[in-house]
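Module 6 notes. Inverse folding takes a fixed backbone as the condition and produces residue identities as the prediction. Think of it as a translation problem where the source language is geometry and the target language is the twenty amino acids. Below is one complete input and output pair. Work through it position by position during the lab.
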């Protein structure tokens, strides 16, 4: 585990840290392994946003049910961060004495509105940015945005629901929204999908929540 503090000079940049190491597998031959960590670094106190997505379809059993979050973590100047290097896995074991941190690289932070307001239609045209579409998550875009074609507000969706589906919404969504209200202001709730339903909840962290303690939300397997 490596702990670091974000310095003022990193503000307004994408910072990428990386380390190399020798990895041994079942044979005596060594392979070079590289680990990379990317962060969007903002000035001190600037608002940040993240997305969290939980996949609940069990195509291959309960192990498929897991949570995902934005792969490029947003941090601010004077924040502390932690990264970890895997020493042993199914790919082999790292030779600890060979671990070497490389110089940090910097690049401009992408325009945030292009990420928050992902235009799925534009990314289906012939002149689309294919790399952005196929590697949407690496561009900070939740892959659900590229799957769902249209979103509706919750109140409109409920008008066309059957009684059984309304009961499901009450148990699965409404109760969850009540839990969120201690820490967040719920700004909007949308739903999309045809053969399946996907819920999108827009939240804004409260400035003075009732408690400063970390709260774990089992519905999405995430703590805030």
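Target side of the pair, the amino acids:
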């Amino acid at each position: 585990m490596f702990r670091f503090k974000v310095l003022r000079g990193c503000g307004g940049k994408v910072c990428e840290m990386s380390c190399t190491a020798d990895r041994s597998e079942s044979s005596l031959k060594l392979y070079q392994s590289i680990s990379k960590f990317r962060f969007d670094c903002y000035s001190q106190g600037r608002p940040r946003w993240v997305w969290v997505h939980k996949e609940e379809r069990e195509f291959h059993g309960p192990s498929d049910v897991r949570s995902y979050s934005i792969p490029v973590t947003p941090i601010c100047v004077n924040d502390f961060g932690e990264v970890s290097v895997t020493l042993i896995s199914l790919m082999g074991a790292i030779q600890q004495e060979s671990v070497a941190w490389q110089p940090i690289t910097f690049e401009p932070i992408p325009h945030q509105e292009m990420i928050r307001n992902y235009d799925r239609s534009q990314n289906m045209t012939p002149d689309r940015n294919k790399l952005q579409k196929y590697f949407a998550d690496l561009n900070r875009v939740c892959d659900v945005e590229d799957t769902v074609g249209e979103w509706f507000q919750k109140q409109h969706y409920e008008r066309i629901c059957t009684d059984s589906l309304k009961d499901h919404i009450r148990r699965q969504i409404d109760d969850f929204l009540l839990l969120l209200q201690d820490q967040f202001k719920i700004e909007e709730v949308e739903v999309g999908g045809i053969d399946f339903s996907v819920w999108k909840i827009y939240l804004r962290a409260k400035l003075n929540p009732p408690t400063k303690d970390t709260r774990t939300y089992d519905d999405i397997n995430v703590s805030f």
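Reference fact for the lab report: The mean pLDDT is 81.
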